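[recover] target loaded
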């Protein structure tokens, strides 16, 4: 899960910036010494600690503040006004303001550390929750990417999983929880927990989706009427069953964007003929509809969340995923996702408006006896 480190504490990498307040102190001190006694530049020295607090921690800010106070005393001594009321008040005001700046800098750094710890815990929970699939899963080769729109948040509601059934097959899910943050992680945990349990025990894909919908519905009832609840809860999901010994797969769409099938440079959109409502909103009376599709050796399935197809260019045009995927060079799933994310980012002008989760699954041809395994370039 391409999760980046979150928030550096103030002061890291600030050594070079310290030259700015130091130069300010020197310039103001020299100007105060050479200026007429009627011109008082000492109050400007408070700029130095205030500026330092914007990029450094409390200790460095305190040092700059002490230097500013010392510079004020030097100016007063050289101008012969150490004992005058004007210089005493200037000196006192500078000391008080410097102390206040250091104090608030200390509070800010404490809050930043606390926020960083909370975010790291949330990221760790999300990483453990998703359990990204390995590169090889039975006869399949898989790759994934997860990118959050907000570089500071790192916590989203997109989810995916790849699970071996124990009966000669693999089941796959990709989904999108309404909302973000810790609440979204909690709901995603319910979905993935129900999926992993049902993927191994449910005989059919409709049975699995029904079990997931019941689990999600029961969980959402517990939070739907809470005081801080925004109102509507649901989870879009696409669930697939990929047997090892066949050249066909089945899928059930619960309000999720359709997957793409890549075969020999051609792209096919696998639309569901009768998609079900999102999980948590109740399934049709007859149960979810299951669609079959061909999935032969060398084919690749591209699964994604709506952050991909809803990505807009600066002119407001949506990202044409199916058209663009047909132009990507052939390669392993890892290379496919690398090209995709680079292309989406270029389409949006460098910034995503929503979280993006993508999962590519390729059926790897079994090597013929006496031949080397597939070594296509990534």
């Amino acid at each position: 899960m391409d999760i980046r480190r979150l928030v550096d504490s103030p002061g890291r990498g600030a050594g070079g910036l310290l030259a700015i307040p130091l130069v300010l102190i020197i310039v103001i001190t020299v100007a105060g010494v050479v200026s007429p006694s009627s011109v008082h530049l000492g109050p400007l020295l408070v700029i130095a600690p205030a500026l330092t607090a914007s990029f450094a921690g409390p200790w460095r800010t305190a040092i700059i503040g002490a230097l500013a106070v010392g510079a004020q005393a030097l100016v007063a001594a050289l101008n012969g006004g150490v004992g005058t009321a004007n210089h005493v008040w200037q000196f006192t005001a500078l000391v008080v303001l410097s102390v206040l700046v250091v104090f608030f800098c200390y509070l800010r750094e404490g809050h930043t550390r606390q926020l960083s710890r909370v975010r790291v815990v949330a990221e760790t929970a999300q990483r453990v929750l998703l359990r990204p699939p390995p590169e090889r899963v039975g006869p399949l080769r898989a790759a994934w990417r997860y990118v959050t729109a907000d570089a500071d948040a790192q916590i989203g509601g997109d989810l995916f999983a790849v699970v071996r059934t124990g009966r000669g097959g693999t089941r796959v899910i990709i989904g999108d929880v309404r909302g973000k943050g810790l609440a979204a992680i909690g709901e995603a945990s319910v979905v993935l927990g129900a999926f992993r349990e049902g993927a191994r025990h449910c005989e059919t894909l409709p049975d699995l989706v029904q079990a997931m919908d019941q689990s999600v519905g029961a969980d959402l009832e517990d939070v739907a009427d809470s005081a801080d609840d925004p109102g509507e809860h649901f989870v879009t999901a696409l669930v697939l069953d990929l047997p090892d010994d066949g050249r066909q797969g089945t899928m059930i769409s619960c309000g999720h964007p359709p997957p793409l099938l890549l075969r020999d440079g051609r792209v096919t959109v696998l639309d569901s003929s009768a998609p079900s409502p999102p999980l948590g909103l109740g399934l049709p009376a007859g149960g979810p509809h299951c669609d079959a599709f061909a999935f032969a050796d060398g084919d690749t399935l591209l699964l994604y969340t709506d952050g991909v197809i809803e990505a807009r260019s600066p002119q407001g045009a949506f990202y044409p995923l199916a058209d663009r995927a047909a132009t990507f060079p052939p390669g392993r799933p890892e290379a496919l996702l690398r090209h995709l994310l680079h292309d989406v980012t270029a389409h949006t002008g460098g910034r995503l408006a929503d979280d993006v989760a993508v999962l590519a699954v390729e059926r790897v041809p079994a090597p013929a006896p006496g031949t080397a395994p597939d070594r296509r370039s990534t």
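[recover] notes: The first strand starts at residue 136 and ends at 137.
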